[in-house]
């Protein structure tokens, strides 16, 4: 391929109350504020040497504006644009200078309708990895992955794997052998993006990497002390899928954030994707606890990159929209 | 007082399949087997220098035979017997030799009908604390406390505090200011026994102490690997009450076991019991997750120390038998 | 006995720069400041509901003023005074009001010349145990024990055990079967005071309890980030003795502080003290690393409770003042 | 480049007592034995889906036979051979079938004289990542990197970066601005190989990745329980360089093994290598403790890939062979 997508790099979320969001993300999750004003906050994790991995924009209503991937260089963007255009998918360029702290960017609605963005340049920032004296809350280290609810997981996977060069680490099949969910990666971990069967296109969650399991426990304690116990939606627990130690939170606007530690190395080309049956109870939560209904049903609406309006959602192609042992 | 109750010391449980119980308690929880035969298994935690803290007896049906407390010396037993007899409560002596590995013991049905036992002597066993090469599963260190469901928590507390010398560390009140639950201790931690409003008398759970929070996480992982994910009933989580990091399990017979790490020191006479409102969401689970219904409704039947038959249970005196935010 | 010593309760240390000490103890170790002015800082751990467990007083030169024990009630103080006076040991009373935040206190130079204090009343303070949002650095939870260098460990032990009611959990003997060090307790853990053969009387260290091993690792990270890597003297490591996970620090004046997690329950009267040979390499550091020379040779000078001057020190009665495998 | 080196993939070490090595690596470090016979043991970490990452061969004397890298495909091997041959470096082919469990392999003495190997195929093995019931000791997850002592670090770096496509994450300079050590990577972490100024060529250590910091602490405890406290050479501690939580062990033959957890993501092309002064005390051990002399002076001799004899070593080009604050 004439381009190299490196990794999930940033999420741009619309929030309705910047002050409330700041409290949650900074004191609760431990993000570092790189810059902020009345209209936006730029946040980065403790090990990140780039300007931000999470951009919160003040808006009338909450939604997910875009999920961004970093590519190797500027020419990769043109090669990517060609892929989309050959497919008849409309692209949008945001020239350098039009967005703060990042270079030229390409936006497009992906095959499932999810708004995605590619860029190669972002301003640098001081890495705080060894400023342990500034660590707070869950001590978020770096962005890890996105998870999107889509109406046709199989179609989404084919596009990302064949056209964009993603590989699959794990996947879930229904009793009829349809792909119900899949975990795809560019950087050699479990995922940069996962797709899950559901009303879509919607952003199910953005996940951030923690340094170790105890950081997640401490995150829970600090969040509860700050009054966010109602924002803890699911976990802590171990995923069967990915083997990660996880926690799902809802931010003050309801955007879902996963805190994540675990993973494994997927760099070998002969690594074989791991298959799970949807009704294997250990798939979702290795320790057996079922996810609450809201975890399956609720997700963030996403924006149309061309109109700036919220995308309409449709029902998924597979009827079974959560494991039977829960229904 | 003419006696000194030291601590919760052992639980005697009836189980229907010793082999299944052994697998769960030894490989899953990490107990050391001190002795075993076709009729019983004597288990101890890794730091325990006494013969056992959990005695599993083979029986036709599962139930809790007795909760035992260690007292300072032999004469304390006589002083205790006098307390019960003055109250008109029938005592039962098991002379030295009648029970394996422990000395003379006094049994009685407590004020709530829970079967309790007092003894001062138990055979010694090698302490395995620094045999880290033998650690398994959740690495249980020692017995910590009992929890009993009783029909009148206030009456139970008055008896244990006034007649037996227990102190209260924390308690929960209903909206009408009735005591719904209480945590009582002799050793200077949060509790040796807790009482909870419910159908009683029943044994709600026996709790064992772990060395650190990660042992609990590893316990979950090992239990799930061994096929016990369905036995994980609640947690891991942080209790608001006691501040402990907890996990509730159901053994193969359904007896509930708590794994417990956290606590604090309560030795000062001027330590003031901590009061919680029953509807404070952080009371039960500091991080906000509600306990499942089975956690409130199910508990082990207990034995009558005189007849050897199961005690009948009665409805609790307080109507509200679980927090309203759950109902 | 007509008195009940509950536990090691506070250390009073003289420091030369309150601001420097505050930075170290608050940001590095995570103490809560209860009160402070130009002459003193009163510090408590996160679970402590009493006014302070560490009192730092501004002075011209650093030294240890006194190690304090909390006793059950006011009359215990008189009974204790009688013990000392019957032994011909001069006592000093500090009436209520003469010391901030504590009641009437009895001071005496113990049999080894160490300055000790007994009191039963201290003002209360808010317990911060569940204010995880305020946790900093090593997250000190509570005071645990003192360690004193004395010239005759055997004599010190006999006095504390026979006259004051302490029990022994572990001890170290030389090749000639002399007691080289001993760990004594009142609260049912490994120790409230330990004695070690050396130039004495001196205060070797004050130890504080941490909630879990990861708090110690994080303490190291935060201390290093704040520029205190030179203050980390020994560890982290596991003691063979006590099984604790430990770290030894030197505060800005050179006072030695131990951070401590591990321990085990010693409440049973039939718990048998654990014996170690001085040359067993796993005794000091279970993992094998030797302690640096400064750890053996350096300690805080102590104050004469009557004159307010520093006590003269003498050489120890046993020649072997550290294990041969280190010499 | 016409080839893609993926990652450090296996070490082949000669050991004199397979039984002693097996005990250390399996019970102490937690490796899984894939295969073994009288002449060799093939070991893999818990997450590894390939046949082995450590091959121990029975030999008369201990030495390091080769450090192996996995490349993307078979043709990458020919492209690599061309690089070496154009440089006048003699290559050696081991055709498929000549080594157990791996395909065709290319061996060469690198620019510093270190024996290295490249291969693209290895037999698969069951991944044990979620068989927590089989976890032992330090629970080694996967191979991470090699560290070689070489006489000219600058020359080694230039060759690996310019000819083999490695990138630099961190490096250390002397007072004269010479490169004293460097950390180079292919997979996007801190390193696959590090070079350190010293008598060379020698293998300083092979490093294995652990899942979390507590696994390292538990590794120490289990190793000590098994009698390996003398094999713990340095740590646990935090490296300033790489930010990893580390432990250095010596296996029964003296080969040095690092247990490693921490790291960070280096996938961005605009990640700038981090520079350290050799005399910055926090470089080596963030917490301040100096490494012992043996850590600087001792390392495993390496084999000549053509003659099978031990390589002669030479003195390093830079005089300063360890930081001055240690000398």
Query: How many separate domains make up the residues of chain A?
Result: 2
- Net shape of chain A: globular
Q: Uncertain segments of chain A of ≥5 residues (pLDDT<50)?
A: none
CATH topology heading of the largest domain in chain A = 2,3-Dihydroxybiphenyl 1,2-Dioxygenase, domain 1
- The CATH architecture of the largest domain in chain A would be Roll
Helical content of chain A stands at 10-25%
- Give the class of chain A from helix and strand content and strand pairing: alpha+beta
Strand content of chain A: 25-35%
Distance between the termini of chain A: 43 Å
Oligomer: homotetramer
Number of DSSP helical runs of chain A: 6
The run of helices and strands of chain A is: EHEEEEHEEEEHEEEEHEEEEHHE
Name of the CATH superfamily of the largest domain in chain A:
2,3-Dihydroxybiphenyl 1,2-Dioxygenase, domain 1
Supply Rg of chain A: 18 Å
**CATH classification class of the largest domain in chain A:** Alpha Beta
Q: Would you tell me the overall average pLDDT of chain A?
A: 95
Query: Largest interface, counted with CB-CB under 8 A?
Result: A-D, 33 and 33 residues
Q: Work out the number of β strands of chain A.
A: 18
3D structure, described in words:
- 4 copies of one chain form a homotetramer.
- The longest helix of chain A is centred in the N-terminal third of the chain and has 13 residues, at 74-86.
- In chain A, the strands form 2 sheets. In chain A, strands 9, 10, 11, 12, 13, 14, 15, 16, 17 and 18 form a 10-stranded mixed β-sheet that branches. An 8-stranded mixed β-sheet of chain A has the order 2-3-4-1-5-8-7-6, with helices on one face.
- Chain A is globular, with a radius of gyration of 18 Å.
- Chain A contains 6 helices and 18 strands.
- Chain A has helices at residues 18-28, 74-86, 153-163, 213-225, 281-284, 293-297, and strands at 5-15, 32-36, 40-44, 54-58, 63-71, 91-94, 105-109, 115-119, 142-150, 167-173, 179-185, 193-197, 202-209, 232-238, 245-250, 256-261, 274-277, 300-301.
- In chain A, a hairpin with a 3-residue loop joins strand 2 (32-36) and strand 3.
- Chain A is of the alpha+beta class and 327 residues long.
- The first copy, chain A, has 2 domains: 5-119, 2,3-Dihydroxybiphenyl 1,2-Dioxygenase, domain 1 (Roll); 136-301, 2,3-Dihydroxybiphenyl 1,2-Dioxygenase, domain 1.
- Chains A and D meet through loops of A and loops of D.
């Amino acid at each position: 391929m004439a381009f190299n997508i490196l990794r999930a790099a940033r999420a741009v979320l619309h929030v309705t109350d910047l002050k409330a969001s700041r409290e949650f993300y900074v004191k609760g999750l431990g993000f570092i504020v790189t810059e902020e004003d009345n209209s936006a906050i730029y946040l980065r994790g403790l090990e990140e040497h780039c300007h931000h991995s999470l951009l919160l924009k003040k808006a009338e209503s909450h939604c997910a504006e875009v999920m961004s991937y970093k590519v190797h260089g500027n020419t990769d963007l043109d090669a990517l644009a060609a892929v989309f255009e050959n497919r008849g998918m409309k692209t949008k360029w945001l020239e350098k200078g039009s967005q703060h702290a990042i270079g030229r960017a390409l936006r497009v609605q992906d095959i499932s309708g999810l708004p995605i963005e590619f860029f190669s340049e972002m301003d640098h920032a001081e890495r705080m990895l060894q400023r342990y004296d500034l660590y707070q809350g869950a001590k978020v280290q770096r962005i890890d992955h996105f998870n999107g609810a889509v109406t046709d997981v199989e179609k989404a996977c084919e596009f990302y794997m064949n056209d964009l060069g993603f590989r699959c680490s794990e996947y879930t099949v229904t009793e009829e052998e349809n792909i119900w969910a899949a975990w795809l990666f560019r950087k050699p971990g479990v995922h940069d993006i996962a797709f899950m069967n559901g009303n879509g296109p919607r952003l199910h969650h953005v996940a951030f990497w923690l340094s170790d399991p105890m950081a997640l426990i401490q995150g829970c304690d600090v969040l509860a002390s700050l009054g966010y116990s109602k924002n803890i939606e699911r976990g802590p627990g171990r995923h069967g899928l990915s083997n990660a130690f996880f926690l799902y939170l809802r931010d003050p606007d309801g955007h879902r954030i996963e805190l994540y530690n675990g993973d494994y190395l997927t760099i070998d080309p002969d690594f074989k994707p791991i298959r799970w049956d949807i009704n294997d109870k250990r798939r979702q939560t290795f320790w057996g606890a079922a996810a609450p209904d809201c975890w399956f049903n609720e997700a963030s609406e996403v924006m149309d990159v061309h109109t700036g309006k919220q995308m309409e959602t449709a029902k998924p192609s597979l009827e079974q929209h959560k494991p039977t042992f829960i229904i």
